[in-house]
Each structure stands twice: as C-alpha cells, then as structure tokens.
Amino acid sequence: MSNIKKELEKFNEKQKIVKLDFTGCKTAWEYHERIRVAFDFPEWYGKNWSAFWDLLWSECDADKVEITGEHTLRKGFQSYIEKTHELLQRKKDEREKSGYIFEYEVID
User: Fold this and answer.
1) Architecture of the domain spanning 3-106
2) What does the alpha-carbon distance between residue 54 and residue 44 come to, in Å, rounded to a whole number?
C-alpha cells in the first residue's frame, strides 16, 4: 500500500483539525495572535510571515486547517488573507511531495 493511500486512510479515521477564526479581527497584531492561539504556537511566536512559516513547517502536526471569518475582515486585510493561503498551500504542496496529506479549507 502506498504512503499516500495509508495517509488517506489515517486522515479519514482521525484528523487533527486546527480551527482558525478571524471573525471580527481588527488589527494585524490580533490577526497573528489568532494564528498563534489556533495553532498553539508558543508565546514567543514573532507575529510575522517568516515566523508563521517556520512554526507551520516545524511545529504544526495538523492534518487540516479550517478558516472562518475571512468575510468579516476589512479590505485592508486582503494581503493577509492571500499570504495565509499562500503559506498553507505551500505546506500542502511540501507535504504531498513527501507522501503526506495536509489540507486547508475556507468555511464562510
């Protein structure tokens, strides 16, 4: 049985899901704080994109990320939303290369 098939069976049996809710978020600091709390990153999380990628890659063992509340954000957060999706997609692509599954979904 291939690694991907084994991972898919595991994935379907018991997913570890991170729920990331941006509902009502008002500031860049709060946006990153919600990331920190949702992913259970340490207090010293740097609240920037490099820190997010570093910890997403090294500390995140989730199988899936569910994002809610994007539609409640002001237009000024569009670049934050795009960067979040970009980094989550990058993790997905990197995991797939290694035969593992990682997904993210925007639920709004």
Assistant:
1) 2-Layer Sandwich (3.30)
2) 13
- Judged against a pLDDT cut of 60, whether residue 71 lies above it is answered with yes
What is the pairing mode between strands 64-68 and 17-21? parallel
What ranges do the domains of the chain cover?
3-106
105: three-class secondary structure by DSSP:
strand
Q: Mapping DSSP to helix (H, G, I), strand (E, B) and coil, where does residue 74 land? A: coil
**What's the pTM value of the predicted model, to 2 decimals?**
0.85
| CA 15 and chain centroid, separation | 14
> What type of residue is 59?
E
Sheet order of strands, 17-21 included: 17-21, 64-68, 103-106
State residue 15's pLDDT score: 84
Q: What's the pLDDT at 8? A: 63
Is the model's pLDDT at 21 over the cut of 70? yes
pLDDT of residue 13: 64
How many Å is the maximal CA-CA distance in the chain?
47
Single-letter amino acid code for the residue at 22? F
